[in-house]
Amino acid sequence: MSWIKQIVVGDGECGLLYRNRRFQRVLRAGVYRCFDPFGRVTVGVHNLTRPEYAGADAEVLMAQSDGVLAGCFTVADIGTQQVGLVLKNGKLEDVLAPGARKLYWKGLVDVQVQAVSLADTLEVDARVASRLRQLGVLGKVAVTVDVPVESAGLLFVDGKLSRTLEPGAYAFWNFQKNVAAEVVELRVQTLEVSGQELLTRDKVSLRVNLAASVRVTDPVAARTKVAKYGDYLYRELQYGLRKAVSGKTLDELLGDKATLDADIFAYVRGRVSELGIEVLGVGIKDVILPGEMKEILNSVVQSEKAAQANVIRRREEANATRSLLNTARLIEESPVLLRLKELEALEKITEKIDKLTVFGGLDGVLNHLVSLKA
To answer: pTM higher than 0.70 for the full model?
Structure first.
């Protein structure tokens, strides 16, 4: 039985020698022999290409980092109001949470730890966020929000509105505080209120479809003064529609939709103006009547059109009779005009005759072909 233990530490490795489970020394690359008759010596060999020290005695080694271990380890001790950025060979590779303590081997990989204060700002630097996104860890340590053009972002920290975000990409550290972000669209939007069952002033039941064009002018007011501004606006459009329809008869509603639109617009605009919402326009799309009411209205329209047609026909007959009377008076006063009418009649008759024989020349045609007796 050999009492000499041989220890081999290769290139890119480093060993920690323990005797009776207490740290003794650091072993660099090489071959070592130690007297160990009772098996009380243990050696932990670590790969320096992975600089993170994962041993259970990390805290013990940190306590000795000012002595013999000062040249072997880099100690990362992050404050409770800080975030640690771990750079390996000058490149960001990891993030340490507030209050984290960690050991990194010195040697093959140059490890630097930069502490970022959370007391000043929660926003992640754009270059840091880009690198963390590339590593696929940004969503784990930060809240990200993309604010499109024609939109506004609202940042909430612990339930309180912190700031308004202009269009762009943002990331905020999600440590110790509850960070949330919302995007409010500022473009013109269309809101439809469909299938509303309503009663007119004369107790006629109908269904109305309404459309409105709106946009958010003050995203802070729209988000903080009402829980869900979209639902609130929808209900106000319903109330305005019901109020306007119930104040008009069916004839008034069908005859003047513009007034109905204006009444709804005025009501809704007054109700939402203080909420940072601008109503640009309101319009009735469809008025749907029950089947029975449609038949009644169709009958009324047919009767009205028949009456109008009858009036027009009587008017034209009266005009035609008046024209004949005037022509008769002119013929009575002028024998020449009477003769011209006779010739016009003769011309129309001769167009239908295949063969015509005339005796006596033109006088025969004028005097003997047609004879009229008074």
So the answer is: no
